[in-house]
Design brief:
single chain, 236 residues, mainly alpha, Arc Repressor Mutant, subunit A, Four Helix Bundle (Hemerythrin (Met), subunit A), 2 domains, two-stranded antiparallel sheet
Length: 236
Protein backbone atom coordinates (compact mmCIF):
# COMPACT_ATOMS: atom_id res chain seq x y z
CA UNK A 1 0.00 0.00 0.00
CA UNK A 2 1.25 3.54 -0.71
CA UNK A 3 2.43 5.44 2.32
CA UNK A 4 0.12 8.26 3.35
CA UNK A 5 2.05 11.20 4.73
CA UNK A 6 0.39 12.78 7.76
CA UNK A 7 0.98 16.49 7.95
CA UNK A 8 1.69 17.75 11.43
CA UNK A 9 -0.42 20.81 12.11
CA UNK A 10 0.85 23.77 14.04
CA UNK A 11 -0.93 24.60 17.27
CA UNK A 12 -1.77 28.06 15.93
CA UNK A 13 -3.66 26.44 13.03
CA UNK A 14 -5.79 24.43 15.45
CA UNK A 15 -6.50 27.53 17.51
CA UNK A 16 -7.43 29.53 14.40
CA UNK A 17 -9.74 26.77 13.15
CA UNK A 18 -11.52 26.47 16.50
CA UNK A 19 -11.95 30.23 16.82
CA UNK A 20 -13.23 30.44 13.26
CA UNK A 21 -15.83 27.73 13.97
CA UNK A 22 -16.91 29.59 17.12
CA UNK A 23 -17.35 32.79 15.09
CA UNK A 24 -19.21 31.08 12.26
CA UNK A 25 -21.52 29.28 14.71
CA UNK A 26 -22.46 32.57 16.35
CA UNK A 27 -20.77 31.89 19.67
CA UNK A 28 -18.93 35.13 18.98
CA UNK A 29 -20.97 37.64 16.98
CA UNK A 30 -19.82 40.55 14.85
CA UNK A 31 -18.41 43.40 16.99
CA UNK A 32 -17.94 41.05 19.96
CA UNK A 33 -14.55 41.14 21.65
CA UNK A 34 -12.77 37.81 21.89
CA UNK A 35 -11.38 36.70 25.25
CA UNK A 36 -8.00 38.13 26.19
CA UNK A 37 -4.84 36.42 24.99
CA UNK A 38 -4.32 35.00 28.48
CA UNK A 39 -7.86 33.57 28.55
CA UNK A 40 -7.42 32.08 25.06
CA UNK A 41 -4.17 30.48 26.21
CA UNK A 42 -6.02 28.80 29.10
CA UNK A 43 -9.02 27.89 26.90
CA UNK A 44 -6.94 26.08 24.29
CA UNK A 45 -3.98 25.01 26.43
CA UNK A 46 -1.39 26.71 24.23
CA UNK A 47 1.24 29.40 24.57
CA UNK A 48 1.00 33.07 23.68
CA UNK A 49 2.83 32.71 20.31
CA UNK A 50 0.23 30.20 19.09
CA UNK A 51 -2.64 32.50 20.11
CA UNK A 52 -1.05 35.50 18.44
CA UNK A 53 -0.35 33.60 15.22
CA UNK A 54 -3.96 32.38 15.19
CA UNK A 55 -5.29 35.91 15.63
CA UNK A 56 -3.03 37.23 12.86
CA UNK A 57 -4.41 34.53 10.55
CA UNK A 58 -7.98 35.46 11.42
CA UNK A 59 -7.20 39.10 10.71
CA UNK A 60 -5.75 38.13 7.34
CA UNK A 61 -9.01 36.45 6.33
CA UNK A 62 -11.11 39.33 7.63
CA UNK A 63 -12.66 37.73 10.72
CA UNK A 64 -11.05 39.79 13.45
CA UNK A 65 -9.76 43.31 13.92
CA UNK A 66 -6.59 43.80 15.95
CA UNK A 67 -5.65 47.04 17.69
CA UNK A 68 -2.71 47.63 19.97
CA UNK A 69 -3.64 47.32 23.65
CA UNK A 70 -7.16 46.03 22.91
CA UNK A 71 -8.73 42.60 22.71
CA UNK A 72 -9.40 41.23 19.24
CA UNK A 73 -12.84 42.17 17.87
CA UNK A 74 -14.93 40.00 15.57
CA UNK A 75 -15.59 41.48 12.11
CA UNK A 76 -17.11 40.23 8.89
CA UNK A 77 -15.16 40.32 5.63
CA UNK A 78 -16.73 42.73 3.15
CA UNK A 79 -16.97 41.97 -0.58
CA UNK A 80 -14.28 44.62 -1.10
CA UNK A 81 -11.99 42.86 1.39
CA UNK A 82 -12.45 39.54 -0.40
CA UNK A 83 -11.71 41.04 -3.81
CA UNK A 84 -8.66 42.94 -2.53
CA UNK A 85 -7.28 39.66 -1.16
CA UNK A 86 -7.23 38.43 -4.77
CA UNK A 87 -5.25 41.40 -6.06
CA UNK A 88 -1.79 39.80 -6.04
CA UNK A 89 -2.90 36.48 -7.61
CA UNK A 90 -4.92 38.44 -10.18
CA UNK A 91 -1.92 40.52 -11.25
CA UNK A 92 0.08 37.34 -11.61
CA UNK A 93 -2.62 35.83 -13.82
CA UNK A 94 -2.77 38.98 -15.96
CA UNK A 95 0.99 38.94 -16.53
CA UNK A 96 0.86 35.33 -17.76
CA UNK A 97 0.59 34.63 -21.51
CA UNK A 98 -2.99 35.36 -22.59
CA UNK A 99 -3.76 36.82 -19.18
CA UNK A 100 -5.11 40.15 -20.38
CA UNK A 101 -7.35 38.40 -22.90
CA UNK A 102 -8.72 36.11 -20.21
CA UNK A 103 -9.59 39.08 -18.01
CA UNK A 104 -11.07 40.93 -20.97
CA UNK A 105 -13.37 37.97 -21.55
CA UNK A 106 -14.30 37.88 -17.86
CA UNK A 107 -15.07 41.60 -17.94
CA UNK A 108 -17.23 41.22 -21.04
CA UNK A 109 -19.14 38.28 -19.55
CA UNK A 110 -19.76 40.32 -16.40
CA UNK A 111 -20.62 43.71 -17.91
CA UNK A 112 -22.86 42.33 -20.67
CA UNK A 113 -24.96 40.85 -17.89
CA UNK A 114 -24.99 44.17 -16.02
CA UNK A 115 -26.19 46.03 -19.12
CA UNK A 116 -28.99 43.53 -19.68
CA UNK A 117 -30.03 43.71 -16.01
CA UNK A 118 -30.06 47.52 -16.11
CA UNK A 119 -32.34 47.52 -19.16
CA UNK A 120 -34.76 45.27 -17.32
CA UNK A 121 -34.63 46.68 -13.80
CA UNK A 122 -33.20 50.22 -13.63
CA UNK A 123 -35.41 52.73 -11.83
CA UNK A 124 -36.00 56.28 -13.03
CA UNK A 125 -33.56 57.58 -10.42
CA UNK A 126 -30.92 55.07 -11.52
CA UNK A 127 -31.43 56.03 -15.16
CA UNK A 128 -30.96 59.67 -14.18
CA UNK A 129 -27.68 58.76 -12.46
CA UNK A 130 -26.55 56.88 -15.56
CA UNK A 131 -27.44 59.87 -17.74
CA UNK A 132 -25.43 62.16 -15.46
CA UNK A 133 -22.43 59.82 -15.70
CA UNK A 134 -22.77 59.81 -19.48
CA UNK A 135 -22.84 63.61 -19.60
CA UNK A 136 -19.70 63.84 -17.48
CA UNK A 137 -18.10 61.37 -19.86
CA UNK A 138 -19.03 63.63 -22.81
CA UNK A 139 -17.65 66.73 -21.14
CA UNK A 140 -14.30 65.00 -20.58
CA UNK A 141 -13.70 64.30 -24.28
CA UNK A 142 -10.31 65.74 -25.22
CA UNK A 143 -8.89 65.24 -21.74
CA UNK A 144 -7.79 61.60 -21.73
CA UNK A 145 -6.96 61.43 -18.03
CA UNK A 146 -10.35 62.80 -17.07
CA UNK A 147 -12.07 60.69 -19.70
CA UNK A 148 -10.50 57.57 -18.17
CA UNK A 149 -12.10 58.38 -14.81
CA UNK A 150 -15.54 59.16 -16.24
CA UNK A 151 -15.37 56.04 -18.40
CA UNK A 152 -14.91 53.91 -15.28
CA UNK A 153 -17.66 55.85 -13.51
CA UNK A 154 -20.17 55.24 -16.31
CA UNK A 155 -19.60 51.50 -16.19
CA UNK A 156 -19.63 51.55 -12.38
CA UNK A 157 -23.19 52.90 -12.34
CA UNK A 158 -24.32 49.72 -14.11
CA UNK A 159 -22.80 47.66 -11.30
CA UNK A 160 -24.58 49.85 -8.73
CA UNK A 161 -27.92 49.33 -10.51
CA UNK A 162 -27.59 45.60 -9.82
CA UNK A 163 -27.85 46.46 -6.08
CA UNK A 164 -25.36 43.79 -5.10
CA UNK A 165 -22.21 44.85 -3.21
CA UNK A 166 -20.31 41.88 -4.62
CA UNK A 167 -20.86 43.24 -8.14
CA UNK A 168 -19.56 46.70 -7.27
CA UNK A 169 -16.49 45.13 -5.67
CA UNK A 170 -15.87 42.96 -8.74
CA UNK A 171 -16.27 45.95 -11.03
CA UNK A 172 -13.81 48.04 -9.02
CA UNK A 173 -11.30 45.19 -9.07
CA UNK A 174 -11.59 44.58 -12.81
CA UNK A 175 -11.22 48.30 -13.47
CA UNK A 176 -7.98 48.33 -11.48
CA UNK A 177 -6.61 45.09 -12.89
CA UNK A 178 -7.29 46.18 -16.48
CA UNK A 179 -6.00 49.72 -15.97
CA UNK A 180 -3.02 49.12 -18.26
CA UNK A 181 -5.40 47.94 -20.99
CA UNK A 182 -7.54 51.07 -20.70
CA UNK A 183 -4.51 53.37 -20.88
CA UNK A 184 -3.13 51.47 -23.84
CA UNK A 185 -6.35 51.71 -25.84
CA UNK A 186 -7.17 55.35 -25.05
CA UNK A 187 -5.62 57.82 -27.48
CA UNK A 188 -6.65 60.98 -29.31
CA UNK A 189 -9.94 60.26 -31.03
CA UNK A 190 -10.55 57.04 -29.16
CA UNK A 191 -12.37 58.88 -26.39
CA UNK A 192 -15.05 59.87 -28.90
CA UNK A 193 -15.34 56.26 -30.06
CA UNK A 194 -15.81 55.11 -26.48
CA UNK A 195 -18.31 57.87 -25.74
CA UNK A 196 -20.44 56.91 -28.73
CA UNK A 197 -20.42 53.32 -27.51
CA UNK A 198 -21.59 54.54 -24.10
CA UNK A 199 -24.41 56.48 -25.76
CA UNK A 200 -25.55 53.32 -27.54
CA UNK A 201 -25.52 51.39 -24.26
CA UNK A 202 -27.40 54.16 -22.45
CA UNK A 203 -30.06 54.51 -25.14
CA UNK A 204 -30.71 50.77 -25.16
CA UNK A 205 -31.05 50.72 -21.38
CA UNK A 206 -33.38 53.73 -21.33
CA UNK A 207 -35.47 52.05 -24.04
CA UNK A 208 -35.81 49.01 -21.77
CA UNK A 209 -34.37 46.84 -24.54
CA UNK A 210 -32.20 44.19 -22.87
CA UNK A 211 -31.14 42.51 -26.14
CA UNK A 212 -29.93 45.80 -27.61
CA UNK A 213 -28.22 46.77 -24.35
CA UNK A 214 -26.44 43.42 -24.25
CA UNK A 215 -25.33 43.75 -27.86
CA UNK A 216 -24.17 47.35 -27.44
CA UNK A 217 -22.04 46.43 -24.44
CA UNK A 218 -20.61 43.36 -26.15
CA UNK A 219 -19.64 45.33 -29.25
CA UNK A 220 -18.07 48.06 -27.11
CA UNK A 221 -15.89 45.65 -25.14
CA UNK A 222 -15.00 43.57 -28.19
CA UNK A 223 -13.75 46.75 -29.86
CA UNK A 224 -11.67 47.64 -26.79
CA UNK A 225 -10.19 44.13 -26.67
CA UNK A 226 -9.33 44.18 -30.38
CA UNK A 227 -7.77 47.61 -30.14
CA UNK A 228 -5.61 46.47 -27.22
CA UNK A 229 -4.41 43.51 -29.26
CA UNK A 230 -3.64 45.78 -32.22
CA UNK A 231 -1.80 48.38 -30.15
CA UNK A 232 0.03 46.08 -27.75
CA UNK A 233 0.62 43.32 -30.26
CA UNK A 234 -1.28 40.87 -28.08
CA UNK A 235 1.16 41.34 -25.21
CA UNK A 236 -0.14 40.65 -21.72
Amino acid sequence: MPIEIIKQRRLSEDVADRLERMIQSGEFSESDQLPSERDLMRLFGVGRPSVREALLHLRKIGLVELRSGERAKVTRPTPQFVIEALASPARSLISAPGGVQNFQHARSFFEVGLARHAALHATEDELATLKEALEKNRLSIGNLKRFERTDVDFHFVLAVIARNPIFTAIHAALAEWLLEQRRTTLAAGQDMVAYRAHVAIYEAIVSKDPDRAEQAMREHLEYVAKRYTDVAGGGA
